[in-house]
Amino acid sequence: MVSGMSEMVVESVRVHMLSSQHVVILKEAERDRYLPIWIGPWEANAIAMKLQGVTPDRPLTHDLFSRTLDELGVTVRRIVVSDLSDETYRARLVLDLNGEAHEIDARPSDAIAIAIRVGVPIYATEAVLDRAGVVPETDEDEKLSVFREFVNSLNMDLDQGNSPFEGGNPTEGGPGEPSNRPD
Length: 183
What we know:
single chain, alpha+beta, Bifunctional nuclease domain, 8 strands, disordered C terminus
């Protein structure tokens, strides 16, 4: 465990049925706290393909980048969803080159796509989780209804009628609706 951070796992990649926007949902490994991050369709597809064990005929950008780092002797140690500012998430790739640590600014979707390819932990800072994390309340049906409605409004299957290649390429937004701000 890294101080001031919580380890996260990719719970799912979904499509919001009403807006057709893509979202990756991270779940805190130690408790039921979720972090939804709105992402672009290309990044959603890259994450979903790897999670489903689908290997493309040619390497995707994240595969190429991961292989390049490996060939150059750079080790990815972890990724961190590090900040939420102006409704836009920020992430860092924590790399090791010859025993020296390097941190590289990244979009969370790209960092997550790389992390699942190289099998490293995903973390989120407590500040991000405190601001944007979703914790289902403990009283079963009634108190979970808001979270359940949100999750149910998302389409789980990216391959049936909801192609991640349709529509624009929104940038990653914050805890509300997607932001269209450039990175």
